[in-house]
Structure formats: structure tokens, C-alpha cells
Amino acid sequence: MSDNGQNKDGFTPEDEKKFAGNSLRQYGVYSGIVFQMLATMGLAFWGGKKLNDHFGIESNLLTLGIGLLGMGLAFYNLINQLKNIQNEDKK
Question: How many CB atoms lie within 10 A of CB 4?
Fold first, then answer.
């Protein structure tokens, strides 16, 4: 097999740049991040509510605390994923 600038998958560097710049692919990546954030925050608030009900605490202290922790984790994950995307775009 001759090596004509293709990688092991058969794509040339120009093909990889076209694929990386595809706007539909970018839309999928960013929408995936949004759904992941919503799932993280939703599960955190739901879990906080379940724990709050389980322990019989009348104030929603656990719901709020665990929900805010989930929001913090979701935003931390968002920042890391956006940094990774930015680093990939620079390559």
C-alpha cells in the first residue's frame, strides 16, 4: 500500500480540516455539552430533593446545597470542554 499523505483511516490532512470545520459537527458538539449540563444539574437537584425527603428535613437545605454543587460541577465541566475544543481548533 502506498503512502500518499493519508493517515491510518484513509483521510488526508485536508479532509480532517474540512471535517473539523463542519458546522453541523460543531452544532452537535455544543448541543451535547448543553444536554450534559442540564442532566448534571437536573440530577443534582433531583437527588438533593430525594435526600431531603428521606431525612425529613423541612427546609430545602439539601436540595439547594446539592443542586448548587451540581451547578458548580456542570460549569467546571463546561469550561474544561470548551478549553479542549479551543485547543483542538488551534491544531
Answer: 6
Q: CA–CA separation, 16 vs 63, rounded Å?
A: 45
**What single-letter amino acid sits at 19?**
F
Cell of 42: 437536573
User: What pLDDT, in 10s, does the model give residues 17-36?
Assistant: 776 667 787 888 899 999 99
The CA distance from 16 to 22, in Å, is 10
47, pLDDT greater than 90: yes
Instruction: List, in sequence order, the alpha helices (H) in 1-91.
Output: 13-20, 23-55, 61-90
Q: How many CB atoms lie within 10 A of CB 42?
A: 13
Longest dimension (CA), the chain: 72
Distances (CA, A) of 54 to 8, 22, 28, 49, 57: 54, 48, 38, 8, 8
